[in-house]
Design goal:
heterotrimer; A mainly alpha (about 100); B mainly alpha (about 160); C mainly alpha (about 400); A: about 100 residues; mainly alpha; Helix Hairpins; elongated; C: about 400 residues; two-stranded antiparallel sheet; globular
Chain lengths: ~100, ~160, ~400
């Protein structure tokens, strides 16, 4: 079996699961869980193509993963800070609860 | 290869649990499990540095932050969540299944035979690249992270109450 | 994972330097004698090596639980445990028997599986962390190339397991304890890692044996080249030490299990063997983090004076470890517990800035030393560290003096 195909299948499934969570969950924090899964699927692709691709002295794949992890951490921190702020106003993390601009 | 074949189904199962579990804290803990299994996969593939960084940042910071936020907000929407499922699962699947099918089809059809590949990730080389070729990107990330830290601290601060 | 290439020729089985490796080599020789296949020999060797480390630290754990009580008693003008055996030496055994024979209670509201999993998940990372430390010149159980990173990655696992323990118990105090523990560990892990970065920069490696090897030799013929004896290393070592007290949840940073406030924090609903596991995880974690501190800043197994080469190197490591742990006990006996906001304030406003300062200081130190300006390097780095420290202290204290204490509940 082609190891790259296994990796890519895994990352496709992870991405689809993340998307599913983003679409169906109503709790904002769990939407963030879905986003993390999708980001991780992308990282997995980079690692896969670095590992089973042509040799790359510039290490582009791992570099991208490194930056991706840093960005994901930043995204989670800001996301959770915003969620906590919204929670303070509406006492809820439900996405539908923060609809005060809704006419 | 064996590690890949063992870990991939486990990662998929853990991710499925993270997506499907109705109780929010369970979902958060399963996310931590998914991310740590992915870290082990990185290590098994030869990217030890990335695997350990994944552990430190994703498991130690991101997943822990998520479960911490769940603790603070104490969502009690399990019953609601389960009650809503019949309505939400259909549209959700309708959107994700075509995407998954396309992705899997593409992987199946267009993939070239994998070359043997290299499993060597020298940390010294990563360091050199970070501070030569990727120095602008490192600076940008540094600014971003500083801004994020200040912003998150400002956001999360208790609003000052007037006496 | 990639490990460093092992050492060259092996001397006789009984030389003192190689004594801790004796079980491993005996098992390997025995298996080879019976013509066991190669993988069996290596697995047997690994198992024997791990058993040696575990045996050493389990003994140390038992001894420390007694010594801690004796030291605290001494500091508080008491006698301490003195009933079981002469001088209370059998106290750990008595404690162990008591722990093991107690009833194992699982609260009705607990999540059974997670409640069981938490104590196990706390002990495993602590034991794994002990495996990568270099205890002697020849004795590093698992010489990983990325040992330091591995150590910090295991710290992440501990956080998750503390959370699981607090949440799975399904009651109030464990939850509060877990929230305190997580916010404290996340905050104090930052200065811990940042002060280690300076060491990584100077020694240019993430492998712990190489970091120790880098601290070999002596300045001016007598001053050991340990990192703690440089300006940036002194500051970094102090920050690392304080932050490691926080990571290990020890007094004065023991809010997660503050007995007078929240019973026992995340361990409240545990009893019997599971509680003993928490206890063990905590002490093994203490050994691991102090061992890392010794490795990074105190020169690991390097001897403190030249001409002491005849003493086996692992004795120096354990002597330093004992000294650091005695410091932990001393601090526990003398300092009162902090309040949560004081803890956070101290971590974010004092420890993190100081640990950030050690990074440029270490860089300037290395560059100037490479250029041959040793004296200038001392002056510049000391100035770089002391001036901001003084400014920060002044600002810190001024803010504290201005705000009057308000007693919200004690008055009226």
């Amino acid at each position: 079996m082609n190891p790259l195909a296994v990796l890519l299948t895994l990352s496709s499934v992870l991405f689809a699961l993340g998307l599913f969570a983003v679409l169906t969950r109503r709790n904002t924090i769990l939407v963030l869980v879905g986003i993390e899964l999708m980001l991780n699927a992308a990282n997995l692709n980079f690692i896969g193509f670095w590992r089973y691709g042509p040799p790359d002295p510039q290490l582009t794949g791992p570099m991208f993963v490194l930056f991706g992890i840093a960005i994901a951490a930043a995204e989670a921190a800001v996301g959770l800070a915003i969620i906590l702020m919204v929670f303070r106003h509406t006492r809820s993390t439900d996405l539908n609860a923060s609809n005060s601009l809704h006419g | 290869m064996t590690a890949l074949l063992i870990l991939s189904p486990l990662i998929m199962l853990a991710a499925l649990g993270a997506v499907w579990k109705a109780r929010p804290v369970h979902a958060g803990l399963l996310l931590a499990l998914t991310l740590s299994l992915a870290g082990m996969l990185y290590i098994a593939l030869g990217a030890e540095f990335l695997g350990l960084v994944q552990f430190m940042v994703y498991v130690g910071a991101v997943a822990v932050l998520i479960v911490f936020a769940l603790l603070i907000t104490r969502p009690r929407d399990e019953i609601e969540e389960i009650a809503r499922r019949p309505k939400s699962v259909g549209p959700g699947l309708l959107c994700t299944l075509p995407l998954l099918a396309t992705l899997l089809y593409t992987v199946d059809r267009t993939l070239p035979e994998a070359p043997p590949g290299t499993a060597d990730l020298p940390v010294r080389r990563i360091g050199e690249l970070l501070f030569t070729t990727h120095a602008p990107a490192v600076l940008a990330v540094a600014i971003l992270l500083t801004a994020v830290m200040l912003g998150a601290a400002l956001f999360a601060r208790e609003p000052s109450k007037k006496p | 994972m990639k490990t460093l290439i092992a050492q060259a020729a092996e001397p006789s089985l009984w030389s003192p330097e190689w004594l801790p490796l004796l079980p491993k080599r005996l098992v390997e020789n025995l298996l080879e004698h019976f013509n066991a296949p190669g993988w069996l020999v290596s697995i047997g060797g690994i198992a024997a090596g791990a058993a040696t480390v575990l045996a050493v630290f389990m003994t140390a754990f038992a001894l420390l639980s007694l010594i801690e009580r004796k030291t605290l008693a001494r500091a508080q003008n008491r006698i301490g445990p003195n009933r079981a055996g002469p001088f209370g030496i059998l106290q750990p055994v008595a404690d162990g028997i008591k722990m093991l024979t107690k009833e194992d209670i699982v609260p009705a509201k607990a999540e059974k599986l997670l409640h069981l999993l938490a104590p196990i998940l706390i002990v495993i990372p602590a034991i794994m962390a002990l495996g990568v430390l270099p205890y002697g010149r020849e004795w590093t159980p698992v010489p990983l190339e990325l040992g330091l990173l591995f150590f910090f990655a295991l710290g992440a696992l501990t956080e998750v397991s503390v959370f699981i323990a607090g949440w799975a118990s399904g009651s109030k105090f464990p939850m509060l304890g877990a929230m305190r523990a997580i916010s404290q560990m996340v905050s104090y892990e930052l200065p811990l890692v940042l002060s280690a970065i300076a060491v990584i920069m100077v020694s240019g490696t993430l492998s712990l044996p190489e970091i120790v090897a880098h601290q070999g030799g002596y300045h001016l013929g007598f001053l050991p080249a340990w990192h703690i004896l440089t300006p940036w290393g002194l500051v970094g070592g102090l920050v690392f030490f304080i932050a490691s007290i926080g990571e290990a949840n020890r007094c004065p940073f023991d809010l997660p299990e503050g007995e007078s406030e929240i019973v026992a924090g995340h361990m409240t609903e545990y009893s019997g063997f599971k509680y003993a596991l928490f206890f063990m995880g905590e002490y093994l974690g203490l050994f691991a983090i102090s061992g890392l501190g010794v490795t990074l800043f105190l020169g690991g197994w390097q001897a403190p004076f030249p001409g002491l080469g005849f003493v086996p190197s692992w004795i120096w490591f354990f002597a330093k470890l004992a000294a650091v742990i005695f410091l932990f006990l001393w601090i526990r006996a003398t300092f009162p517990r902090l309040r949560m906001d004081q803890l956070m304030r101290f971590g974010w406003l004092a420890l993190i800035p100081m640990s950030l300062l050690t990074i440029p200081a270490a860089g300037i130190w290395t560059l100037l030393h490479r250029a041959g300006h040793g004296l200038i390097a001392w002056v510049v780095t000391i100035a770089l560290l002391v001036v901001p420290f003084v400014i920060m202290t002044v600002l810190f204290n001024r803010g504290l003096a201005r705000s009057n204490r308000t007693y919200r509940f004690a008055e009226s």
